[in-house]
């Protein structure tokens, strides 16, 4: 069997992996290899048409990571994308400036948003919808793809190696230490030996990583997870909020006590599929471009599932998402608001035609568990009280939108090093604690700094 050796091996070229490589290279560790299951950025294209069958999902997998098909929102807050947990110290949070600087130097156009003291469109509705904002750098779907491509090229120019279209099939672990991985490319299997391995496999890689760590005796932990729907309506209907703060957050507590919030707002945007093939789930997400605008806007409405709701939130979210798509042969469900809330829609149709052909019509009331359906209905009703056009009968809803996260890997939060396996670092969404590009990037930076000392000691 073929074999390679490197000082530091990074699994995944998303934000966590790329920023880990950046920190390693800056620390003088030059023998850095990044392994990526998906394709290089130039070949990451979601095929047109109603089908969704790619062996690797170009939306979720490939150079730049799943964030490269996102809306390109860089949340410059250390608690965004962490379920408001304080994972990072103040000193660590200052490294967000490094993330922002890397984005700015690799992207042609950026838009900055400062927090606003109040979302005026919610004035008088605060008892049902609580507004929130934060420092935001927005580059759009076009910009975030440019960032992933250019930042990856920059790292390779500095000595890092990217191996794309390579499957990592096994972590090589013995005696409580990682020694590298077993991989496969078009030429067959090969090993990569490394004393330092940083697992940055993202959401789509989490089922494999969970299996590998569990087999090695690591006790994973559950924690909160999010499941939701995505609402698409006319751009004008959402403009009063988007116009004041692009990625507005409006929080709501349903009558049954489920916390629901807006997430990933996309002004003048589009809705795309995400094929989480390892879990057998097709979900939806949204994105928008700085230089291409539709007449529609969309946002996710996420319900946070906690251990007070169900003993294993992550299993609940995954099982619920599978059950939803099972009703349509494995595809996301779409439905007009008139079908979902027949007694609450008002006004004239807005001319909304759903922007995602890779979905199937269905009855969300029939496929969603009743506590979730009621929570989403309560949220939409509250949002419609503040923005009545949202309640147009042809507003479109899609499900599922999933943010299931990994089961939590026991790590040292100061370094993101595994507490159980020497030489292994687990970062980004794969670790089970973060759910945003900036938080994932920050975890990669922290792990890269820590791993640089480990790699240097191994070489010596």
Question: Can you walk through the features of this model?
Answer:
The chain is α/β, with parallel strands linked by helices and 460 residues long. It folds into two domains: 2-109 and 140-221 and 408-459, FAD/NAD(P)-binding domain; 224-403, no CATH class. The protein is built from eleven helices and 24 strands. Strands 6-14-15-18-13-21-19-20 form an eight-stranded mixed sheet. The model has no long low-confidence stretch (mean pLDDT 93).
Key attributes of the depicted protein:
single chain; 460 residues; alpha/beta; FAD/NAD(P)-binding domain; five-stranded parallel beta sheet; globular
In angstroms, what separates the terminal alpha carbons?
A: 27 Å
Per DSSP E runs of 2 or more residues, the count of β-strands stands at 24
Which residues form runs of ≥5 with pLDDT under 50?
none
Structural class: alpha/beta
Total individual domains: 2
CATH superfamily of the largest domain: FAD/NAD(P)-binding domain
Mean pLDDT: 93
Helix content: 25-40%
Q: How do the strands of the widest beta sheet line up side by side? A: 6-14-15-18-13-21-19-20
What is the CATH third-level topology name of the largest domain? FAD/NAD(P)-binding domain
- How many H/I helical runs? 11
Biggest pleated sheet: 8 strands, mixed
